[in-house]
Every structure is written in structure tokens, then in C-alpha cells.
Design brief:
By secondary structure, this protein is α+β, with helices and mostly antiparallel strands. It has one domain: Lipocalin (Beta Barrel), CATH 2.40.128. It has 1 helix and 9 strands; from the N terminus they run H-E-E-E-E-E-E-E-E-E. An 8-stranded antiparallel β-barrel has the order 1-2-3-5-6-7-8-9.
Length: 132
Amino acid sequence: MKTLLLGAVALMAMAGTALADDLIGDWRTAADDNGNTGIIRITQCGASLCGTLVQAFDGSGASMQTDNIGRQIIWDTNPTGTAGEYRGMLYSPDRDRNYRSRLQLSGTSLSVSGCVMGGAVCREGGVWRRAN
């Protein structure tokens, strides 16, 4: 019985990892308040997922330099158990603010939103597209 229970727990843990793998990769963000976009690389960071800005583009689509390249934009992100939904933390460079995030994966699209002040102020981050 103990072996069966341990096997079930291991299977559930592997299922959670399989769900998280769907989010891993490069994502092109929606345009921010300044018209800029970026590529966020989402990887496994310990037990959670995190995402780092690896490339930035201005409103015309030209590559641009910013101090935010290399900065962690997403962290402490995990699947919720609801199909394609992830919750964690998100940094918004255009507002220089951290948000509690909700990410909703649907195929090659990722709907991004976040809230501060216990949900009193929420912001839509647009739809990100898979870049790889």
C-alpha cells in the first residue's frame, strides 16, 4: 500500500512537471506602454519556472539595448492544476513594478495579466506569442 501511495505521488509530481514544460521556451511579449517588445526565455528554476528578458525591440521592431536585458521578468511561477494556467510573479519594466501574475497558455499564445495591492489594481499584459 505504501509503495502504491508513493507511486501515485511520484506520478502526480511528474504530471506537474509535464504541464510546466509547456511554458518553457522563448516568448515574444506584447508591446508595452512605450511600444517596446521583448523575448522572455522561460526555464525551470528549481521547483518553479522563471523567465528572463534576453532580447528587446523598439516600436519599429529594431533590436535595442536596455538595462533590463538579463533581468528576471517572471519568477516563482507554477501551474495551478487548471488546464494551461500558471500563477507567480511578474516584473513590468515599463511601469517598474512587480505584479502577482496569471498566465494562461493556449497553444502558442500566452495571455498575461497581473495584480497589485491584493488584487485592487490589475493590468492586462497582452498576449505573448511563442518565439521558438
